[in-house]
Write a structure and sequence with these properties.
Helix 21 runs antiparallel to helix 26. Strands 1, 2, 3, 4, 5 and 6 form a six-stranded mixed beta sheet that branches. A four-stranded parallel beta sheet has the order 8-7-9-10. Strand 2 and strand 3 form a beta hairpin. The chain has 734 residues and is α/β, with parallel strands linked by helices. It is built from 30 helices and twelve strands.
């Protein structure tokens, strides 16, 4: 196994900026320079995206930014001891010790176990103190490798690390090191303990926070005299807690940022649920709250049906706001629906390509009455002969059937996001009813929410033990389907159908100025946060309406083309800007610009995120303007797309493809020109800024001047971001 950390990956007492993003970029550059990542920007973008979900600062002046990404070629640790410290979101102040964990997308379990073991070591005060006292890079490497067991016996190096804090009796017995990691563990099923809490920890990456939270909870339990048994659902594997241990527990702590696997095991138990970082920041408080729920007569209990990420009761616990909850469940429905739309839309487009645009008139008769050995004789004039007509009919019918699941899948998985598996059947059923009633995707959304909340409510009842097994598989689906679908049939279906028809008529009637305005709005939404919530709203709106498009009603297809074209503009514009004026971009940005060509062409708006992250006040406005123009042009040209994704690579699904390309090119040019103008003129102002950007020798002057006032945003972060102007710009300061 190759070394995870070397002296070249250690930086001591360094000034790496005042923002967490600057530190992450510096460490990503260090890893890339050692040949352990093929893209410093790609690694930095993944780590920054993870940081935005949950800050990685933990108590004690430590931060553990981390990422799993294809940009990493070799599992690596990069460590910086900062002077001055930088805020990574910890409650007790900034961090002076930063470990960046970089793992490849397909990292092996042995490496992931070592990475997670490092995260555990960082909760040990003596280890952290030794890192602060180290005088050389080699001393740091020695300390880390000793903590990882790489300087000890082979058994310690390869021992099971999946659940060192008592994930199960078997796991503890297999791993001698688990005694140190989980001093509070007792034998499974033992009843000789004062009180017992079981905990599940999980984070999106499954490398650092998952294991640090588990160890923090175990250590807090030991200090409190409480038996804490943990299950880490991380990247290096999961060993489930033995059911007998769960049954004997007084309460449960879920410190998670993702769904808990097989949550039904904890049915009936008092519990608290919080983000994984809370398990690191306040483990004793969580244990106290969990036991308080157990002691309270009306304390929250995990119902048999529940596996949702949070619940609306329990005062004092960290929980989603109503808006965040609705956003999560709606995006859950959309994410599960998109594969039906993607496959169905592309197959239907292929059917039109082979069988002509009148293939819907013939498709069903052809697939039922013909075969490859009995090719059709009656088909449209635009078909590519009998073979084209038959293959086109088959592709169209498969796509059409896939698209017919759109509303049902949307409703089913919205309900799933609320009530887990017991919500799926009621959600699919009410979605099918919405289709039958003509309520469309609006009916699917409302029906899915209705089915999910009804299923969730039924599951909250404290059923007797003999009935619990029937609740999720019989009782909840039966009652929730009856109530939600009955309401859709008898009360909601008619009004929603009328609303849907009115909306379709309004969209279909949009021509001229109205259509252009809609395109401008959708284009701006696609560029304003580059894959964030606003972008997703516009994209979801387009995808949800895609199934309603037809030759007679092409407006939904026009909206899809508008959204896709506008979403391509930001990365393409950044790529063009770096190619035209490379001097005003850092080396890292220039490398990222090369990748942005492909990302933009494939409709991956996130290709512009590294640029927006380092210079948001210039990149985002420029992107919005160009994307808006593109959106308005595609709507004005009535360009259509039957594919929900793919950019130029699904050209066969885009009508008036040349006009589509023209719209994208115009928007790209506008955004590129604007971002260059803003970077050149706004940074230093007018001709002085232009002259300085044109002069390579001015880099030293710019670096010195960057410490003074700027005409940009006025923030210190913006002053640093404006600094690199030459081809030798320091990528770590972007």
């Amino acid at each position: 196994m190759t070394s995870l950390i070397t002296t070249d990956l250690v930086v001591l007492d360094a000034d790496q900026g005042t923002e967490s993003s600057a530190v992450i970029r510096a460490l990503a550059a260090t890893i890339s320079e050692q040949g352990r990542a093929n893209s410093a920007d790609g690694l930095a973008a993944a780590a920054i995206a993870r940081e935005e979900k949950t800050p990685t600062g933990v108590p004690g002046g430590i931060a553990i930014p981390h990422a799993r990404t294809e940009a990493v070629t070799e599992p690596s640790l990069a460590m910086a001891r900062l002077n001055p410290p930088v805020d990574f979101g910890a409650k007790d102040g900034p961090a002076d010790l930063v470990f960046m964990i970089a793992a490849p997308e397909g990292a092996g379990k042995d490496h992931l176990k070592l990475l997670s073991k490092l995260a555990r070591s960082l909760v040990k005060k003596d280890f952290v103190a030794s890192l602060r006292a180290a005088t050389t890079e080699q001393e740091v490497v020695d300390l880390v490798e000793t903590a990882l067991g790489l300087r000890e016996t082979t058994e310690e190096q390869t021992g099971t690390e999946a659940a060192p804090t008592g994930a199960s009796t078997a796991g503890a017995a297999a791993d001698p090191a688990s005694t140190e990691a989980a001093p509070t563990e007792t034998t499974a099923g033992s009843t000789d303990h004062p009180r017992r809490v079981v905990a599940v920890t999980a984070c999106p990456t499954g490398i650092a926070h998952t294991y640090m939270a588990a160890d923090a909870l175990a250590q807090a339990g030991s200090e409190m005299g409480i038996d804490v048994v943990t299950e880490t659902q991380g990247s290096s594997g999961t060993t489930p807690i033995d059911q007998s241990v769960i049954d004997s527990a007084d309460a449960v702590v879920f410190a998670v940022d993702v769904d808990v696997r097989d949550k039904a095991r904890f049915a009936g138990k008092p519990y608290v649920q919080v983000p994984v970082k809370a398990g690191i920041d306040d483990p004793q408080g969580l244990i106290t709250k969990a036991l308080a729920e157990a002691d309270a007569p009306n304390g929250r209990r995990l119902a048999a049906a529940h596996a949702s990420a949070d619940e609306s009761s329990s005062a004092g616990n960290s929980r989603e706001s109503i808006g965040a909850h609705l956003k999560r469940v709606l995006l859950t429905g959309v994410s599960y629906m998109i594969p039906f739309v993607a496959a169905g839309g592309l197959l239907m487009a292929l059917g039109f390509l082979l069988g002509g645009f009148d293939i819907p008139d013939y498709a069903e008769d052809i697939v039922l009455g013909n075969s490859l050995w009995n090719l059709p004789t009656e088909y449209g004039d635009l078909a590519l002969g009998p073979v084209g007509a038959y293959l086109g009919a088959v592709a169209f019918q498969i796509g059409n059937l896939s698209m017919s699941f759109l509303v049902a899948a949307l409703a089913g998985y919205i309900a799933y996001g609320i009530a887990d598996r017991p919500g799926i059947a009621p959600g699919f059923t009410v979605g099918a009813v919405a289709v039958l009633m003509g309520a469309g995707f609006i009916g699917g959304i409302i029906g899915g929410l209705l089915a999910g909340y009804i299923a969730h409510w039924i599951g909250s009842f404290a059923a007797p033990r003999w009935l619990r097994g029937l609740m999720p598989v019989v009782i909840i689906p039966l009652v929730a389907s009856l109530v939600s679908s009955g309401l859709m049939f008898m009360v909601l279906g008619g009004p929603i159908s009328a609303l849907t028809k009115g909306l379709d008529s309004w969209l279909s009637s949009m021509t001229g100025t109205a259509a252009v305005v809609l395109g401008l709005i959708l284009g701006a939404m696609m560029a304003i946060d580059l894959g964030g919530p606003v972008n997703k709203v516009a994209y979801s709106f387009a995808v949800a309406g895609l199934a309603a498009g037809s030759v007679d009603n092409p407006v939904p297809w026009e909206i899809m083309a508008t959204v896709m074209a506008a979403g391509m503009v930001p990365p393409l514009a950044m790529a063009l800007a770096t190619a035209v004026r490379p001097r005003i971009f850092s080396q890292a940005e220039k490398e990222n610009g090369k990748a942005a060509w492909l990302l933009g062409a494939a409709f991956i708006s996130e290709g512009a995120i590294p640029f927006a992250a380092s210079d948001p006040l210039r990149v985002i406005p420029a992107s919005v303007v160009g994307a808006s123009v593109t959106g308005g042009m595609t709507m004005a040209f009535s360009v259509t797309s039957q594919a929900p994704h793919g950019g130029v690579f699904v050209f066969f699904a885009i009508d008036s493809f040349l006009l589509f390309l023209l719209s994208v090119v115009v928007g790209t040019l506008i955004s590129a020109v604007l971002v260059l103008a803003l970077k050149i003129f706004v940074r230093k102002g007018g001709k002085a800024g232009f002259a300085e950007a044109a002069d390579r020798s001015a880099s030293a002057t710019t670096a010195a001047a960057s410490t003074g006032p700027t005409t940009g945003s006025g923030s210190a972060g913006e002053a640093e971001q404006a600094e690199p102007v030459s081809s030798n710009a320091d990528a770590t300061r972007v």
